[in-house]
């Protein structure tokens, strides 16, 4: 039985609504263009949403969490990995048998091997180049040319020119086989790194469903209990929920009394007493006693289903975020196309059609963004790898990019800023008694209880000193416990226990207990032989790292807010201790989502940090969702960033990494795009009047050097310090 049920609730007025319906105005938060064009070619999606279009079998990823919306990221990464290694294996002999490479390094290619570049090059073009060719079709169909179109154009021109040269159909020697295979290999490597870094789970809704038991014990009209699938329950059925079992559907208690763990729904850290006539929510746990409940809602009408709908809606309402590389590629595509057209026209008008074709082909091949194709994926791969070694799992790289612009961090209180478990915060002894003895007596009496408050009392008592043995232990349902300790009858419990015993709180304790209650703490009294000898203050313990996290965020100009389902007094006490700027207390699950939306409507860019099921909709709604890894699966699945530890200071590390990664992305993009902008005019022959024309081979070498510079610059990310602030 629950010895402390009467003092463990502390539910604020009107906050009994984990049972409330969660419907709300959906307000048109989901843009119509969030879904992939059903007419798109298989294997192509809408480009410009943060991933390159055209990944094999990949639909639009504008949604972050529909069923299966991201389930294929692991498959895509595996496909690109396979294609990359196969194409790299084919590329090596092509490069080694290229006459241009042989001339550079001073060796001769046997005549018998002259077939290697065209044959293997054609295979690479068809197999390795297929994702880019099919992706280009999708981009062009949507009239949004970008990276895929630019890559497809370059490899197609290189293939066509090399094939014509090999077959003797062209008057000039345009042998780009080695450049073609290396280009395809580099682009596949970039996509593999990106897809691997992107791989994020899509199990938020499934994790919610897992909170419900598969079976239930239904009580028949004759009182017999039968085990049935939970899906077969109907409104009006009576169900037995045993101690430690989960409630299978929203219901009301018809017999029994239990302390219900509702933390996964309300965020309330303390078990809540539920007796006959009270409502209980699907997924909550009877911690100490069996109860019988009458089913009032099943399926999509349950509170859990309402939270699930909120998660789905919030995830679907995210706006598109177009990747920087895609935007740069779109500009480069038009730049390259215009440069090629002007090059051909100018050289053709000069009367040399052969040179016109050669210069045009060289422009289109050199315009392909080798370095640009790796600029973003390399930064993503290195930053996510570094993050993982620091206990930060990046599931959504767009969330990591957005973290740098966050100006408000909204922390859930229970389990995030606090430890989510009761702890002793104070001991007060009545006049003539000693606080150590009070705690020892209470610890002895509570030693055989399994209640969370009792365990906290026992732990604190044993830390302070020896705890005497107790006998004749008994629980007083809803009031407290009784035991015999050192010849005295000791009771421990809340105000209800004092009323039952006819005992009054001594005036010497009133001031301390009033202060504890003002801070939202639970007060337990220790009574020995009918007289109150002292009181214990119990509250959710604030993490020692929380203050450092708040200070570090303030130092970076970030506003800190806190949201909780706890009472206002509890929330205000924690906020005052930590220096938090804004507090949202007595908040129900759907209201947490609205709190985030309200902050966003005020123009704030919000990162939500939480760990419970009730945080899942808010995590999905926020600009960046950060889940404490020790939290529930659904919170982890709904977030873009997951902290493996429970240290809130890691949020600061996420922001630091976001800013550093973004700088590297821009540096790489400027370098990669700058190379193209500078080399294309040279390849076109703008300096021909002064005797300088960029040979295709030299352009290819410079292009390779540009790729190396981008790679080395990305490696500097490894030096970023992600250690938590002191």
Give the helices and strands, then pairings.
Elements (H helix, E strand, L loop, with lengths): L72 H24 L2 H7 L10 H13 L1 H12 L5 H20 L10 H22 L5 H6 L5 E5 L5 E5 L8 E4 L8 E6 L2 E4 L1 H4 L5 E3 L4 E2 L4 E2 L4 E7 L5 H14 L7 H26 L3 H14 L3 H20 L2 E3 L2 H6 L5 E5 H5 E12 L5 H12 L5 H13 L5 E7 L3 E6 L2 E6 L1 H7 L5 H12 L3 E7 L2 E12 L3 H10 L3 E5 L4 H11 L3 E3 L4 H13 L4 E5 L5 H6 L2 E5 L4 H6 L2 E3 L6 H35 L11 H20 L11
Parallel strand pairs: 11-18, 11-20, 18-19, 20-21, 21-22
Antiparallel strand pairs: 1-2, 1-3, 3-9, 4-7, 4-9, 5-6, 5-8, 10-22, 12-17, 13-14, 14-15, 15-16, 16-17
Helix pairs in contact: 1-3, 1-6, 3-5, 3-6, 4-5, 5-6, 5-10, 5-11, 6-12, 10-11, 10-12, 10-24, 11-24, 12-24, 12-25, 15-16, 24-25
The poorly predicted ranges are: 1-73, 198-205, 313-322
Roughly how many Å apart are the termini?
44 Å
Strand content: 15-25%
Q: Could you describe the largest sheet, including whether it forms a barrel?
A: 7 strands, mixed
Spatial extent as radius of gyration? 33 Å
Strand order of the largest sheet: 10-22-21-20-11-18-19
Number of domains: 4
- Give the class from helix and strand content and strand pairing: alpha+beta
Helical amount? 40-55%
Gross geometry = elongated
Number of helices: 25
Mean pLDDT: 77
Oligomer: single chain
In total, the number of strands is 22
């Amino acid at each position: 039985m629950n010895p402390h049920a009467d003092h463990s609730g502390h539910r604020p007025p009107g906050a009994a609504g984990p049972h409330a319906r969660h419907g709300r105005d959906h307000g048109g938060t989901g843009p119509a263009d969030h879904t992939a064009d059903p007419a798109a070619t298989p294997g192509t999606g809408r480009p410009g949403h943060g991933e390159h279009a055209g990944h094999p079998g990949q639909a639009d990823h504008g949604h972050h969490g529909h069923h299966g919306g991201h389930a294929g990221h692991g498959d895509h990464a595996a496909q690109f990995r396979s294609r990359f290694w196969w194409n790299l294996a084919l590329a090596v002999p092509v490069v080694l048998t290229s006459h241009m490479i042989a001339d550079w390094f001073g060796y001769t290619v046997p005549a018998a091997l002259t077939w290697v570049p065209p044959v293997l090059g054609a295979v690479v073009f068809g197999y390795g180049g297929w994702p880019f060719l099919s992706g280009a079709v999708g981009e062009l169909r949507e009239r949004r040319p970008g990276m895929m179109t630019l890559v497809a154009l370059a490899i197609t021109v290189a293939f066509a020119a090399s094939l014509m040269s090999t077959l003797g159909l062209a008057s000039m020697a345009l042998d780009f086989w080695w450049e073609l295979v290396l280009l395809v290999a580099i682009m596949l490597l970039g996509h593999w790194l990106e897809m691997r870094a992107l791989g994020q789970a899509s199990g938020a809704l499934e994790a919610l469903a897992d909170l419900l038991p598969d079976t239930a014990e239904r009580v028949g009209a004759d009182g017999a209990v039968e085990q049935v699938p939970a899906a077969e329950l109907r409104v009006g059925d009576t169900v037995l929920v045993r101690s430690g079992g989960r409630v299978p559907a929203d219901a009301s208690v018809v017999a029994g009394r239990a302390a219900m763990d509702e933390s996964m729904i309300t965020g309330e850290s303390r078990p809540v007493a539920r007796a006959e006539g009270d409502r209980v929510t699907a997924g909550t746990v009877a911690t100490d006693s069996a109860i019988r409940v009458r089913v009032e809602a099943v399926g999509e009408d349950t509170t859990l289903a309402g939270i699930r709908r909120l998660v789905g809606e919030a995830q679907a309402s995210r706006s598109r975020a177009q990747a920087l590389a895609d935007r740069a590629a779109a500009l480069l595509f038009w730049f390259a196309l215009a440069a090629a057209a002007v090059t051909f026209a100018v050289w053709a008008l000069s009367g040399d059609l052969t040179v016109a074709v050669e210069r045009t082909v060289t422009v289109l091949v050199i315009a392909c963004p080798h370095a640009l194709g790796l600029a973003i994926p390399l930064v993503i791969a290195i930053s996510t790898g570094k993050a993982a070694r620091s206990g930060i799992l990046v599931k959504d790289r767009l969330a990591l990019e957005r973290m740098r612009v966050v100006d408000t961090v909204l922390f859930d209180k229970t389990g995030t800023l606090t430890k989510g478990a009761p702890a002793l915060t104070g001991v007060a002894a009545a006049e003539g008694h000693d606080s150590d003895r009070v705690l020892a007596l209470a610890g002895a009496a509570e030693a055989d209880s399994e209640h969370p408050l009792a365990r906290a009392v026992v732990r604190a008592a044993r830390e302070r000193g020896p705890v005497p043995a107790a006998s004749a232990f008994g629980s007083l349902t809803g009031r407290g416990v009784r035991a015999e300790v050192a010849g005295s009858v000791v009771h421990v419990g809340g105000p209800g226990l004092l009323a039952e015993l006819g005992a009054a709180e001594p005036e010497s304790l009133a001031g301390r207990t009033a202060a504890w209650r003002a801070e939202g703490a639970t007060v337990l009294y220790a009574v020995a032989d009918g007289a109150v000898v002292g009181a214990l203050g119990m509250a959710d313990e604030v993490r020692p790292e929380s203050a450092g996290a708040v200070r570090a965020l303030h130092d970076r100009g970030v506003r800190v807010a806190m949201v909780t389902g706890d009472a206002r007094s509890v929330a205000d006490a924690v906020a005052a201790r930590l220096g938090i700027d804004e507090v949202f207390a007595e908040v129900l699950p759907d209201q947490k989502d609205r709190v985030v939306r309200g902050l966003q409507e005020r123009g704030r860019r919000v990162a939500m940090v939480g760990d419970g099921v009730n945080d899942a909709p808010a995590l999905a709604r926020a600009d960046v969702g950060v889940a404490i890894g020790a939290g529930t699966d659904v919170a982890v699945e709904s977030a873009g960033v997951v902290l493996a530890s429970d240290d809130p200071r890691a949020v600061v590390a996420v922001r630091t990494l976001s800013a550093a990664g973004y700088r590297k992305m821009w540096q790489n993009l400027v370098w990669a795009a700058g190379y193209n902008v500078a080399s294309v005019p040279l390849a076109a022959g703008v300096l021909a009047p002064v005797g300088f024309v960029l040979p295709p081979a030299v352009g290819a070498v410079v292009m390779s050097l540009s790729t190396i510079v981008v790679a080395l610059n990305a490696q500097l990310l490894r030096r970023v310090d992600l250690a938590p602030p002191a």
